[in-house]
Structures are given as structure tokens and as C-alpha cells.
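Regression report. Comparing outputs from two consecutive submissions.

Submission 1:
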Amino acid sequence: MKTLNNIAKICFVTLITISMSACTNLGKKIGIGVNKTPDEFRITKHAPLEIPQGLTLPVPQPGAPRPQEVTPQQEAQSVFNAQPSSAENAVLNNANDSIAPTTTSNSDAFLDQLGAQDIDPSIRQKVNEDYEDRVNEDVPIGLKVLRLGKKVEPKAETIDPKAERERLQQNSAPQAE
């Protein structure tokens, strides 16, 4: 009789767990079946749209390929030959024609008015704190329970370039005996 009771309890808990995992929000919190990345095979790349100079558009022809499209074979060949494709050349040429000079005589005054000269030196620490908060926010409940309340440390490590250079120089220097 006791084993029948235990089996009924196990079946009930299993049934509740399965039915609750069907809820999207609960599954997301627990970390079950959540795929946050896009499917790279469903993303298609199209060349940017262009507006002709005179705005005289050609009559559309159903089923005709787009004139600025490049086939995957042509794109691969241009990558291996280290030359941009014809569509990329057209875009680059049009972009170079319309680019204004990047610096002007008033750029410093403009930056002063924006307040860009007064940059907070502790911005990196603030960004890192925000990042740590977001990392710990997205951790599934199951992992939080297993870690028993410990915060997740970001995997990135900041290296001091001067100290690293000195360490590398010391390691590469011949040892005196």
C-alpha cells in the first residue's frame, strides 16, 4: 500500500513538472528549451537598396534576379581573391562620393558643447557592474540553487598591459646562474 502511495506521488510530481515546463516563462526561468540565438541558416543577406540619380526606375520583371545581388559562388571567389565583389564596389563607390570630411574647424567647439571632453574615468567599472548585474539576472533558477546564492563571475579577465609586458620580458630574458 505504501509503495502504491509513493508511486502515485512520483507520478503526480512528474505530471505537474511536465505540465509546468510547457509554460514558456517557467521554462525560460528554469533554463529548459530556450534558444536565444538566431538560426544562421535562415538569415539571408541582401545587398542594400540603391536609388538611381534620376529616379527613373526600371519596370519590374517578375522572377528576374536583383541586379545588385551576388551569387554565393561569386562572393566566395571574391573572398579568396581578396577583391570586393561588384555589388560591394558599387556600394563603396557611391559611399565614397557622398562622404563629407570627417573633421572641421569647429569640431573641438562642438565636442565641448556636447560635453564630450568631460569623460568619466570610472566608466569602465560602471559598465562592468552593469554587466555583472545582467549576467546574474539571466541565470536560470536551477543554477542559482545549485550555486547556493553565489554570484556568477564574468568570464572576461582584464589584463594590465604594462605589468603583462614586464612579465613577458622577464620570462623571455635568459636566466643568470
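Submission 2:
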Amino acid sequence: MGQHPNWETTNLPRNGQGAPLARELPASELMSVLMAETRIE
């Protein structure tokens, strides 16, 4: 834990499930989610 505090902190207030989901999802899924969230902005 603590490897990516920046994006974890950024995702937490958005949907509240960012961090928990990230721990369960594989790296590929996690990257897809991060990419999608970046596109929204």
C-alpha cells in the first residue's frame, strides 16, 4: 500500500469505492478504470 497515494486519494472522494475496487481488480482492469476516469476530465 502507499505506492500510489495520489490517485488513491483522488479517487476516494469521487465514488468511495476507488481504493477497495482497485485492490480486487487485476492491473489491466485497474488501468482501464484509471484511463476512463482521466478521459472524463
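Expected: both submissions complete independently.
Actual: both completed, but the second showed a warning that disappeared on reload.
Relevant detail on submission 2: The mean pLDDT is 62.
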